[in-house]
Amino acid sequence: MNRTEELETITLGPLSGRSAADWQKAPAGKWTPAQIVEHLAISLELSARGFEEARGSQRCRPKTLAERVSTWFVFRLGWIPPGIKAPRRATPAPQVEAADAERRFREGLARWTALETTLAAGPSLTVLVKHPRLGELDLGEWLRFHAWHCRHHAKQIRQRLAG
User: Fold this and answer.
1) pLDDT band, residue 28 (cuts 50/70/90)
2) Taking the model in full, what pTM does it have?
3) Position 104 in a domain
4) In CA terms, which of 7, 33, 105, 124 is 20 to 30 Å from 44?
5) How far apart are CA 12 and CA 7, in angstroms?
6) Does residue 118 belong to any structural domain of this protein?
């Protein structure tokens, strides 16, 4: 199983065969599974676009203290403090249809598969793309982030479906 297949299984697996109503379950003030999947899709799209548009770069500036601490929490502990909000650009719409979220997520994964293939075949440039909380990340760091991010939100999806 490749990385994107793993992300698909982690994220969409719990929703497989579920009704459209199940995709809309959420406690008050929390995202529905459809919104969570949409959020993950947006994150995949934005980061992929960053690599697609990059021309190769070097770190423009050292990571800030907040970025270094955030990176340590996410990559070392696999944890993000409660109450941290998603960046506005990655916030899903108030109403998201299951089919639209699933399609967009799968498209984001396909984009990453193509991106990995392209970058692996190209010259060995270090391309860095900015994450809003973690600072500039290379391809491998972004893949680690997306794996963590999908696992993090898959827990929330399973909680919504169990409730």
Assistant:
1) very high
2) 0.89
3) yes
4) 124
5) 8
6) yes
